[in-house]
Amino acid sequence: MAFVRVSSxxxxxxxxxxxxxxxxxxxxxxxxERYVCRRCLMELPRTRFESIDFNDFEQRFAGQxxxxxxVSYFYYERHSPYAAILHDIKYHGMPQLGVWMGERAAAAxxxxxxxxxxxxxVPVPLHFTKLADRGYNQSERIATGVxxxxxxxxxxxxxxxxxxxxxxxxTAQQRLAGKExxxxxxxKHTATLAGKHILLxxxxxxxxxxxxxxxxxxxxxPGTTLSLFTxxxxxxx
Length: 237
Ligand SMILES: [Zn+2]
Description:
The chain is α/β, with parallel strands linked by helices. It is about 40% helix and about 15% strand. It folds into 2 domains: about 1-45, no CATH class; about 45-235, Rossmann fold (3-Layer(aba) Sandwich), CATH 3.40.50. β5, α10 and β6 form a beta-alpha-beta unit. The protein is globular, with a radius of gyration of 18 Å. Zinc ion binds next to α2.
């Protein structure tokens, strides 16, 4: 109890010296606010995919790879303040924000039943050269937060066979073709995945090409059932 009081006093004192900022709107955080302010959390542009049958995300996979559910926590728009959350997780060295957002997403979405029956989480992997640059895989950090709430393990079961940086200038169609076969299940994890319901996790879904390539690699393991989760979803139009 004394420790709690001292630590909250220290945090308040630290907030005066070096204010912690909301990752989305940049205002100073107060009291027990962490990473994102109360107002931004209240106004988070939720997709509510978990409550929509054959939602926009699931439609992107129709006829491509069979998935049970495909859900995202909030909408990503490039110029929205909420985009900054993803940028902080990915580029600004805030992996702990990824864990925290993953936990929040799971807590908000699990009651819908969208994660029911999931045995384990698999993050979309980073090519090892990118992993060496960044020091962490943002999708693995997000998966860790989700897994903590669901009480299931995260298994780093996929490997990226080529760096995907050269893909950015291509069209969606070229990307779809180019990402085929870029991911594979690590041989030591084939038995871990067999017969399991796997939740594949990424930070954001845009065209879905990366997720689709990963999904195909996972579905090649016998008896797997697949669901998809991303922290954010870009509007497709
Ligand atoms: Zn805010």
